[in-house]
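// run 5 | inverse folding | seed 20
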């Protein structure tokens, strides 16, 4: 089991549009492609607002296959095109692959 931590810089001016797109479309399409979304958070550090979410995968190959299918999704492409007029919804993106240490407490 591995986890993937994703952190998206979001913008206060478009935060509602970002959350609507992720909640109503991205998360649904991700699940269709085998994504196991563990949790989602909003984080603030100083002036910066971030959307943080954690994914669970059985192995790295499953993660790679699911992300490839999601990024190739015609539906996701149409949704991105339809929301482009709302301005930038995401800035910098961080992607971290997390592997439990042998002394870590059990994690979902």
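// decoded
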């Amino acid at each position: 089991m591995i986890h993937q931590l994703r952190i998206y810089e979001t913008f206060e001016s478009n935060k509602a549009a970002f959350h609507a797109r992720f909640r109503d479309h991205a998360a649904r399409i991700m699940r269709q492609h085998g994504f196991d979304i563990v949790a989602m958070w909003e984080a603030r550090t100083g002036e910066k607002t971030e959307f943080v979410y954690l994914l669970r995968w059985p192995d790295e190959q499953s993660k790679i296959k699911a992300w490839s299918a999601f990024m190739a999704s015609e539906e996701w492409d149409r949704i991105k095109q339809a929301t482009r007029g709302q301005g930038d919804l995401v800035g910098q993106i961080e992607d971290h692959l997390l592997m439990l240490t042998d002394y870590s407490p059990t994690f979902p």
